[in-house]
């Protein structure tokens, strides 16, 4: 395996960069992202020239070639590779500023981005990552506003983190034994996300260690649980409890919230109640003729478990899926073709759905790509080569640590 090393001026730590992994990441990378990185790394205005303007692509998973011809694509990859392997001190542009950032958004998306989007996107990128203000954390009586969040999925945890930053008095009530929301409830074989992980994650808690572009449910569940642990969100997390009623008291200007748990029923007051319960945790099973006479097991996809675990039938049993959604894909259902043949997925009209029918758009996207995404790789290398003192970067899932203690 070929590697190169570099040593930062303020540290004797030697970092090893795997050349094969770098080349694989560059080959898999979206070229429009590489062009954006090159402008940040070099400050060269030629990367914003019209002849390098990417083709507009509105699909969720855009064509990674971005409309560039083979020669231009090779040049872009080569330039990024050269910069990463050179002994550069630091990227030339760490923050392009609000005005230039807006120009870059429009350039790389191939369309004019309205200016009202720019503050939100800059915040997501970490350029304007100041903590939330606490101006509204106090009630009119001077006490901290109390918030009850119902549900600890993605939305509930995100809100809890932001409320904690702003100084609110909050806690989460979760009916399940642990947090995770839909990723705790849904554990059918091959359950996973159909959105690239770098979209399906918190902008303030990036994870450079995703094992796939479209991760399975257990990895997403681990991401949320690790995030909650790192931000101390579990300290105000009540699991195994359900909100059964919430009544508004106009005289006191507060909610009276009834919470039931194995230890009993209690009523708590709150200034604000947020229902972050989601809509994928209460499966509705269809009814049709013949189900009463069927002697086998009928399982809703959301309640299914991996064959051979949790009391579910293992190998040797014949499974058939009704519907052509994600759970019907044989690659996800049980993980091998003998559990559910590809031709067994049945659409609404009873027609068999071929695998290509379930492809994501017209772009060939690997279901289980094991190449480390290039953007975290670029950011990781760039952070290691900063010569001047800078704020410590956020490591995996947002916990801060010094640059010198980056993972080897």
| Uncertain segments | 1-14, 309-313, 330-408
How many beta-strand elements? Answer: 9
What is the number of helical segments per DSSP (H or I, 4+ residues)?
9
What is the arithmetic mean of pLDDT? 74
Major sheet strand order: 5-4-3-9
Helix content class: 10-25%
H-E string: EEHHHHHEHEHHEEEEEH
Radius of gyration: 25 Å
How much of the polypeptide forms β-strand, as a percent range? Answer: 5-15%
Separation, N- and C-terminal Cα atoms: 16 Å
Notes on the protein architecture:
This protein is an alpha/beta fold and 408 residues long. 25% of the residues lie in helices and 12% in strands. It contains nine helices and nine strands. It has helices spanning 19-28, 31-42, 70-85, 97-109, 118-125, 154-166, 182-185, 217-230, 374-384, and strands at residues 3-7, 14-18, 146-150, 169-174, 237-239, 242-249, 254-261, 264-270, 272-275. The strands form three sheets. Strands 5-4-3-9 form a four-stranded parallel sheet, with helices on one face. A three-stranded antiparallel sheet has the order 6-7-8, with no helix packed on it. Strands 1-2 form a two-stranded antiparallel sheet. A hairpin with a 4-residue loop joins strand 6 and strand 7 (254-261). Helix 2 packs parallel to helix 9. It starts with a strand and ends in a 24-residue tail after the last helix.
């Amino acid at each position: 395996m070929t590697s190169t090393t570099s040593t930062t001026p303020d540290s004797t730590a030697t970092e090893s960069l795997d050349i094969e992994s770098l080349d694989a990441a560059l080959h898999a990378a979206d070229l429009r992202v590489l062009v954006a990185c090159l402008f940040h790394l070099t400050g060269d205005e030629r990367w914003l020239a019209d002849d390098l303007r990417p083709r507009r692509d509105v699909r969720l998973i855009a064509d990674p070639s971005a409309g560039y011809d083979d020669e231009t694509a090779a040049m872009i990859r080569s330039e990024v590779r050269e910069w990463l392997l050179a002994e550069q001190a630091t990227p030339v542009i760490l923050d392009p500023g609000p005005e230039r950032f807006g120009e870059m958004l429009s350039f790389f998306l191939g369309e004019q981005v309205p200016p009202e989007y720019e503050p939100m996107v800059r915040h997501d990128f970490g350029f304007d990552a100041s903590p939330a203000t606490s101006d509204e954390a106090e009630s009119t009586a001077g006490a901290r506003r109390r918030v009850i969040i119902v549900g600890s999925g993605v939305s509930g945890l995100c809100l809890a983190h932001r409320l904690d930053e702003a100084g609110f008095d909050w806690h989460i009530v979760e009916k399940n034994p642990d947090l995770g929301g839909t990723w705790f409830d849904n554990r059918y074989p091959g359950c996973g996300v159909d959105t690239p992980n770098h979209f399906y994650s918190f902008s303030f808690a990036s994870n450079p260690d995703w094992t796939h572009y479209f991760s399975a449910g257990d990895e997403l569940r681990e991401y949320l649980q690790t995030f909650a642990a790192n931000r101390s969100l579990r300290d105000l997390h009540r699991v195994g409890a359900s909100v059964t009623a919430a009544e508004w008291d106009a005289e006191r200007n507060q909610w009276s919230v009834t919470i039931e748990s194995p230890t009993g029923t209690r009523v708590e007051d709150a200034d604000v109640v947020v229902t972050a319960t989601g809509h994928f945790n209460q499966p509705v099973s269809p009814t049709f003729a013949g189900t009463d006479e069927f002697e086998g097991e009928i399982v809703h996809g959301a309640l299914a478990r991996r064959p051979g675990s949790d009391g579910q039938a293992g190998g040797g049993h014949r499974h058939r899926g009704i519907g052509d959604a994600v759970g019907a894909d044989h690659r996800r259902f049980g993980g091998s073709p003998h559990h559910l043949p590809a031709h067994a997925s049945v659409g609404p009209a009873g027609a068999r759905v071929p695998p290509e029918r379930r492809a994501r758009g017209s772009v060939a996207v690997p279901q289980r790509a094991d190449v480390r995404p290039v953007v975290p790789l670029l950011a990781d290398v760039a952070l290691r080569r900063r010569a001047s003192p800078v704020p410590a970067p956020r490591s995996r899932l947002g916990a801060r640590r010094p640059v010198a203690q980056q993972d080897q």
